[in-house]
Amino acid sequence: MKRCSWSVLLAMQLLCAALPAHASDPGEIPPAPSAPQQSLVVLVDTGSHMPLADIRDGVLAAGLHRDLGAAIAERLGRIPQFKVWPRKRIGHALEQGEGDILCLYMPEWLPGPLHWSMPFFPFTEVVITRRSARRPLALADLADQQVGTVLGYVYPELEHALGKHFVRADTASGLNSLRKLELGRVQHAETTNLFVDYFLKQGGKLDIHPPLVVKTYRTLCAVSPRGSVAVDDVNRAIGQLLHDGGLARITASYR
């Protein structure tokens, strides 16, 4: 009898050890599944070209807008979602909550009841001139000469300085304008340092005078008043980008 009792006890112990841990408490409530990660909807206008945006079949494939939007979303703990809108409708779309943010803009470019982040992304607008032409020392020196420009863009400094003597040579994009300069089809082009650096990185050849600086400014992110993110949160994410070197790394990849 003693041998039989010890055998039964040993069998019960082995059975208990083989059972899953949660089976010992059938009344235990399993943990709730985690909530899906929230999206950050980033708007990009269809008029953007590399290095700002590479848009293929209505989808943002690459570019500064994509890298910057993804970096901000990461620091907000969100998943980036990109939506492409025509330039003339993108401001209204943001106002109506079709997106959360639109970056690399200035408030004067996008009037309306939008919230704005801190200024953070620098741009320097310049006029560059082929060495075969006379170097302009002021905008007034460009009077009655063709200047490479982008269709649909406005150039208030050139318009103010030159008036009716401002002669535009429009192309579809900033890179096309630089290609015209490279080929000698125009002697001058209004652009930004970012576009010049990217053009040269892609193998372009420019034999130019030192650039004539038009103006320097820092762009912002417009934040929708009907979106899912507050401007204070966007500012915190931008502050982290500036502090941890993320913005510098993004910019360096295009220079």
From TrEMBL:
Keywords: Signal. Residues 1-23 form the signal peptide. SUPFAM superfamilies: Periplasmic binding protein-like II. The keyword Protein biosynthesis does not apply. This is Transporter substrate-binding domain-containing protein.
